[in-house]
Amino acid sequence: MVWAIIIILLAAADQLLKTQIRVNTGADTRITVIDNFFYIVNRRNRGAAWSFLAGKDWGLYVLAAISAVITIVVLIILYRSRNKRLQACLTFICAGSIGNLIDRVFYGGVTDYLDFHFGSYVFPTFNLADMMIVCGTIALCLLILFDRSLLTSAAAEPGAGSGTEPEAVPGDEPRSVPDAEQKEEPHAADHSD
Q: Is 14 assigned a catalytic role?
């Protein structure tokens, strides 16, 4: 399964970058990439986006549990889906979720290092895993909005409904049997003795 390999490689890349930041950048260090705009920093986020639940002792455990459940659900959907675009979106979401989950479980918080300043506004610091989750989610939203075949293919996949047979998709016509395959029944009026 190629998607599993991609997820592993992306999560590994995220962890490699975070390890480099943790090892080579002190907590108070700020490396200027573009002055007054882009910096590399080392911040530990014990919460979710924008440090949501960071001040709560139980927040880390709740976020890790939610992240683990969502990752499992996304993996199941990824495994069952045959839609390549959907698989691509879910691959990025899953890789990012796993990258941040590893940080929460092993380091007690997510390592963030990309710091952008827009005048007096400082955008919340983030990392590669966050970018994968956001880009995968945006692509997924666009796919759902603009790819009608996604919804019809999901309804047509075996096991998508309550039974084991695919559900009928509106607009689909039953398959017609070519004339050569049809057996003609002799009519009683055609027989002459």
A: no
What predicted TM-score, i.e. pTM, was given to this entire model?
Answer: 0.72
What SS3 state is found at 93?
helix
Model confidence at 191, in pLDDT bands (50, 70, 90)? Answer: low
103 has catalytic annotation = no
pLDDT grade for 140, boundaries at 50, 70 and 90: very high
Q: What are the percentages of helix, strand and coil residues in the chain, rounded to 5?
A: 55, 15, 30
Between these two residues, 142 and 1, which has the higher pLDDT value? 142
Question: CA of 186: how far to CAs of 39, 61, 176, 178, 180, in Å?
Answer: 84, 74, 21, 19, 16
Q: Which of 73, 64, 170, 147 is nearest to 108 (CA)?
A: 64
Which amino acid appears at position 10 of this protein? Answer: L
Active-site annotation holder among 14, 103, 112, 115: 112
Q: Which residue among the candidates 14, 130, 147, 190 is catalytic per the annotation? A: 130
**Gap between the Cα atoms of 129 and 141, Å rounded:** 18
C-beta separation of 139 from 92 below 8 A: yes
Using CA atoms, how far apart are residues 71 and 37, in angstroms rounded to an integer?
Answer: 33
Give the pLDDT mean for 88-116.
92
